[in-house]
TrEMBL record:
GO terms for biological process: phosphorelay signal transduction system. This is histidine kinase. Its EC number is 2.7.13.3. It holds the Pfam family HATPase_c. Residues 481-501 have a biased composition (Basic and acidic residues). The keyword Transmembrane helix applies. It catalyses: ATP + protein L-histidine = ADP + protein N-phospho-L-histidine. Residues 264-379 form the Histidine kinase/HSP90-like ATPase domain. Residues 388-501 are annotated as: Disordered. The chain crosses the membrane at residues 20-40, 47-66. GO terms for molecular function: protein histidine kinase activity.
Amino acid sequence: MPMVRAGSSPGGPESASTPIWLLPPVLLAVCTAVAVSLTPSTARAQVVWIGVLATAAVAVAAWQAACRARTLDELRRQYAGREAILHRHLSEQEAETVRMAKETLPAAMAQLQKGSTTEEVLHNVVHVSRVSPEFEAAHKAVLRYVLEAVEAEEDLRDSAQRAFVNIARRVQAIVHQQAQELRELEDKHGQDPEVFGDLLRVDHRTALVGRLADSIAVLGGARPGRQWQQTIPLFNVLRGAMSRITDYQRVDLHSVAEVGILGRGVEPLIHALAELLDNATRYSPPQTRVHLTATEIQTGVAIEMEDAGIGLTDEARTRAERALAQSSPTGIDLDDLGESPRLGLAVVGRLARTNDFKVSFRASAYGGVRVVLMVPQELITATPVPGGAMAKAATLPPPRRRGGPLRRSEVTTEEPAPVASSRTANGLPQRRRRTRAVIPPMRQKPEAATTTESKTSVSAAPPPQAGMWLAAFQEGISGESRAESPDLRSDGLSDKESERN
């Protein structure tokens, strides 16, 4: 026979509790009967009445207690049911809250950053289920409030970034105009070595201002100022990066892979390398050298630069990697730069993310920092001229004569070369000198008639250093011999720069 649980049908609470509440009256009735049997006959009537009244009172009290017990049991069952329902609702609400924090809110932020409005995000993302309508309404209200606040901050940041980009573009326009005027002055005063050297030094400083303006524009989410259409040899790209730093004379350019960089990646690569080289020269002793090499690997090109500074601690390396990782496709938050901003790594991180560069920091054999920048295979092609930049410099035809002093190659050993013998009337000596790279430098010394003229002739013979403006680099990308740069110096620029540094 199956057992019936207490409090369940058919016995129910009444059948289970009936023996319990009847037990006290029954016991009292038995006691009354015993007392009546022991009491004399004259007093039995009083004992009987007292026993009956007591038994009735106890029975009523026991019945009331049983009723209250049944009521309490019913209340307990109702409370347990309600508690289970509330616990289930609470679990569902907690699950929805966790889902909002881990899934809904990140997805909403992603759509908001892509340009969607708050209403579109709420329509596409919010899918609350198994919760009460009140909680769903509160859920949407909280999410709407957060999205509106984030959208306002995004609009404010975008406005600030656009303002910075506009300011950077204005500075770039001024720098470009100043560079054109400086080139005109170089054409005009190209035969005066002192004036020409001063103009080149000012031109170099102008290029540094242009790099700073480009950095601000990049941090604002824009591209660097100049866009290249043709493929540029990697050798020229490295020289272009060297030309945009102050201590370019401290950079030793070693072996370079004979590959070309596609036009869309030239300016970002030049700018990123310039920022890394600037850090390498800025945070290393001034008497040390910075070594720059480029090696072709299976996945692209690895450009390595090593300095002899104090190196990076684990904390400094973590901070540098964090600065690289903080960049985003929409630009870096300007508040993250701090009161004394260091733009270099932030700019490199932005360019690396946009152009798929990979930058890593390692310990250098010279005790400093070794930075490796990986250029992806998608930005690399065969060098435009077979044999690389040096072959191109050796095979270009002689330039057309435009008047002015004779070039060094046209001066005989009996007649000393004039001071500006390697320049033309338009003040671009580097272009003509690079085409004459086949002439050994050792022939320059016997051509000088005096000690002063010989010294000036030797200093004017090599091609211009990286500190010169990129006019010839942009107009004629002709490359140059490894033996001619960067340790040889030109027209007083290096001497004055070294005195200032």
